Amino acid sequence: MQIFGVTDRGCVREQNQDAFAYHMIAPDVGLAVVCDGMGGAKAGNIASTLAVSRFVSVFLGHDNSGEPDRIRDALTDAAEQANREVYQRSLSDQDCRGMGTTVVAAYVTPEYALLMNEGDSRAYYIRSSGISLVTRDHSLVQQLLERGDITEEQARSHPQKNLITRALGVEPELKADLYDLNWSRGEFLLLCSDGLSNTLTDQELLYEVIHGGAPEDCCDRLLAIALQRGAPDNVTAVLISND
Fold first, then answer.
1. Domain edges within the chain
2. What DSSP letter does each residue of 100-133 carry, written as one string?
3. What whole-number distance in Å separates Cα of residue 91 and Cα of residue 121?
4. What whole-number distance in Å separates Cα of residue 29 and Cα of residue 69?
5. Does 156 have pLDDT greater than 80?
6. Which fold has domain 2-242?
7. pLDDT tens digits for 177-231?
8. Nearest one of 127, 121, 164, 159 to 142, comparing CA atoms
9. N or C end of the chain: smaller count of CB under 10 Å?
């Protein structure tokens, strides 16, 4: 198991409000998390950084050697405590009023992965046979898609694409979505902020992960493509290789 990551402010934004972290709990067990902050230049950065730090510290404080149900409880508790910390900071600091952050996280072993998300940061499952989106965006555009009001092509350029309907830290309680995934050696998970998924298509992500070159260079390749295309938002990518 190997994990690689990169983040960049992009070509337009003055500050990088994304944050990420990963931790190898054992040689073949890992944790990764990506957050994309919102709420103003200062507040967005604070929200994502606080959330990542609290999420990881709480999760690692649990007994993570047990069954999947125990891991699900640890992921849920980590998200809830991260939510509480960001929310309380938004109440106590005038400069942070209304801040929040997306979150996507994955706990991985060679046989299975447990994932969670809140907002529109994503987790993709990638193998030689194709790419699939594991998580579901909590966004206005996703709601329009599910109602059949717009097409996939229209969704990519929708003027309200950045409007999310759920986020960590904006309400006192959080109930993030959880996902189970069985996977095998030679397969990948890609966690990313919308600054990447809005700039590259799913097929481009698939190509770079499977055919673009060494896995340890993949995140840098994805970032380079986003920057070449003008990267209007912060860009974060974390690749988990089940090798």
1. 2-242
2. EE-EEEEEE-SSEEEEEEESS-EEEEEETTEEEE
3. 24
4. 16
5. no
6. Phosphatase 2c; domain 1 (3.60.40)
7. 999 999 999 999 999 999 999 999 999 999 999 999 999 999 999 999 999 999 9
8. 164
9. C
How would you class 103 by CB atoms within 10 Å of its CB: exposed for 0-12, middle for 13-18, buried for 19 or more?
Answer: buried
Tell me which amino acid residue 200 is.
L
The amino acid sitting at 44 is G
pLDDT at 41: 61
Angle between helices 202-210 and 218-228 (to 10 degrees): 140
How far apart are the C-alpha atoms of 195 and 155, rounded to whole Å?
A: 15
Question: Which residue type does 60 have?
Answer: L
Please say whether the beta carbons of 142 and 122 come within 8 A: no
- Token pair of 103 as six digits: 């979150």
Q: What is the pLDDT of residues 59-115, one digit of tens each?
A: 999 987 768 899 999 999 999 999 999 999 999 999 999 999 999 999 999 999 999
- Exposure string of 34-57, with b = 16+ CB inside 10 Å and e = fewer, is bbbbbbbeebbbbbbbbbbbbbbe
